Amino acid sequence: MKFLHIFLLLIVFVFSDEFADEFDDIEIIKTEKIKKEDKNLEIDSEIYFNTSYNYKHNEPKNKNLNDFRGLSSLDIALNTKIKYKINKNYQIKSNIKIHNDFIYELEPNKYKTIPNGYNNEININELYIQGKISENIDISLGRQIVPWGKSDAIRILDVLNNTDNRKIGLIDIKDLKLGRSMSKIDYFMDKWSFSTIILHENRFSKKPQQGSDYAPPKPTNEITPSNKQAIAISLLGNLEGYDIGFYYTKQYMDNQNYYSDMLGFSYAKVINSFLIKTDMAYFDKLNIAGGLEYSGFKNRTISLEVALKKEIMNYYIRWTREFLNKSLKYTKSIYAIEDKKNIILRGVLEYAINDELSAKLGYINYMGDKMPLKLLENNDRFFGEIKGSF
Questions:
Q1: Measured between alpha carbons, how far is 92 from 94 in angstroms, rounded to an integer?
Q2: Exposed, middle or buried, 360 (CB in 10 Å: 0-12/13-18/19+)?
Q3: Would you state the pLDDT for residue 159?
Q4: How far apart are CA 138 and CA 90, in angstroms?
């Protein structure tokens, strides 16, 4: 309980506007990072220590169920990006993720069931060769990540790479995407780029598994993706004052056993301090998202996204404030579904100690009267992270 009291005091301290205003005018002098020499081989790694504390779970109903109370994660993860330059036109890129959660070893009596990949996992998330065939034509072959659309939080068009959803709402979307094997050719002409992609791998999103506090106590049927190839085409314009995109794909829909066409459109425009964006995708029905981001406040940014997705309304609001010459950042977000009674609240304080070391402290709350958020109501937790880059 002493740990919990200290944590609550820290959160209250961070939320105070008086605390924020005191630091707005402090100037921190930073040294510029020395540019690395050009090398054929570049290796950039990040090591993470993650922990979380569940404060709302009740005692399990019987001794055969996992006990999720209290400390629920002591995870060490390594994220390594490798780039090898073959010659002036071609290079190989890879991204390897490895993690080991020691909570299962330190508290074996609490965990009767350990889901596959939760205690440790090695994921070759990206591995591809990228090169230039001519002045206007690029090619990339292998497992890679290709983002589509303009929405940040509510995925409408971003369907080429699915996500790791085993800890819903806890991890940033940029760290969730799963690489996918594909062959991609890009043709560049003035301010336009045309891409043709053959998708060789159908890699569905990872869902919570039995034995996790994000999954039902009874096992659910997993859909095995077919290896049937799919195609994707995009035409993107980076025009004066706005971006525009047209998209088409024919593939298996995520975690669904049917093959479907999708037509899409995206648009983004900057007007003074406003960024306006929209995504539209037509599968069997129209899915549409609109977003607005305002950065005209001093050291503050606010974002709003509203979407009709699979005939269900989704809402997302994010507020970010920076202090100490942008080395300290606090972000609050609200994600709501349908009648706004299904909500995920998240707050994160991030501090860049130096160029190689950073720390993160946050909380997440779940509220819901319908599945899946009804299932997650006891998963409220504090979480922390220390990240080192080398």
A1: 7
A2: middle
A3: 93
A4: 10
Closest C-alpha among 81, 73, 126, 122 to residue 101: 73
Q: What are the residues facing 274 on neighbouring strands?
A: 271, 294
The tally of CA atoms less than 13 A away on the side-chain side of residue 206 is: 17
Q: Report the DSSP pairing between strands 381-389 and 41-54.
A: antiparallel
C-alpha distances in angstroms, 260 versus 142, 221, 249, 323?
23, 22, 8, 47
pLDDT band of 222, cuts 50, 70, 90: low
The whole-angstrom distance between residue 197's C-alpha and the CA centroid of its chain comes to 23
Contacts of 223 (CB under 8 A, 6+ apart): 204, 255, 256, 257
**What is the torsion angle, in degrees rounded to the nearest 10, for the CA atoms of residue 155, residue 161, residue 162 and residue 166?**
-110
336: its two tokens: 């709501």
Q: How confident is the model at residue 38 (pLDDT cuts 50, 70, 90)?
A: low
Domains contained in the chain, number: 1
- Which of 262, 136, 141 is CA-nearest to residue 189? 136
**Phi, psi torsion values for 2, nearest 5 degrees:** -60, -40
Residue whose tokens read 């994000």: 214
In angstroms and rounded to an integer, the radius of gyration of the C-alpha atoms of the chain is: 22
SS3 85: strand
| pLDDT class of 257 with cuts at 50, 70, 90 | low
What pLDDT is recorded for position 174? 77
> Is the residue at 14 inside a domain?
no
Q: In terms of residue numbers, what domain contains 132? A: 39-285
Q: Decide: 178 and 165 in contact? Cβ < 8 Å.
A: no
Kindly state whether residue 54 falls inside one of the protein's structural domains.
yes
Given a cut of 60, is residue 15 above it in pLDDT? no
Q: Give, in order, the Cα–Cα distances in Å from 362 to each of 118, 184, 333.
A: 21, 38, 11
**Is 372 part of a structural domain of the chain?**
no
Q: Is residue 25 part of a domain?
A: no
pLDDT of residue 220: 66
| Rounded-to-integer distance, Cα 64 and Cα 191, Å | 61
Strand-pair partners of 319: 302, 332
What CA–CA distances, in Å, run from 248 to 37, 260, 282?
A: 41, 11, 10
Asked if 102 contacts 76 with a C-beta cutoff of 8 angstroms, the reply is yes
How many Å apart are CA 205 and CA 164, to the nearest integer? 6
Structure confidence at residue 29 (pLDDT):
41
